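Q: Sequence in, structure out?
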Amino acid sequence: MMQEHEVLTVQSIVVDDKVVVAESWKDVCAIYTPQKARSRALNILRAAAYAESEASIFKAITGVGQHKGFGEISKKALSTAVEALEIIRKERLPLPEDIRAIFGFNTKLPLVDLTWKKGHKISLRLGEAKKHAISLLECAESVETDSFLLKHLERDDWQYLMDEFRLERQKSWTEGLI
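A: Exactly. Output:
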């Protein structure tokens, strides 16, 4: 699970005159188009749902969580739980290789693992995974807005466009407070 010193960030940045989504953790930075960022976010949300349902099924079949600690799990219950999870995993939509839904046996928590090309891996609790997915979705939206504005910065009316955009954003933000 993510520790306080391990910050996973999402932001819009300009690379080669294009605005993109940057997902950063430690010394790894992945760059996504808005479409790829949305796809990644949806896959993270799907992984969170898979992990949560698998944990519930495992706990229900084995009785884990009904008492403190794992206690004694019968071989039959464990075998049944493993078989049920195998069936579920075969029938569900596959996840990309860099996103995994898991049940942490030590923590007894459903987790989402994210992996990057350099082999770095982070395990997120469901709340963290969902917040990260929402950040990716919000950033993808902001990238599209920023791209639109960047495209029009060369025009003579760019200042008018920027002022109108800022007024609209302020109005939307203020209306959200009421």
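The mean pLDDT is 83.
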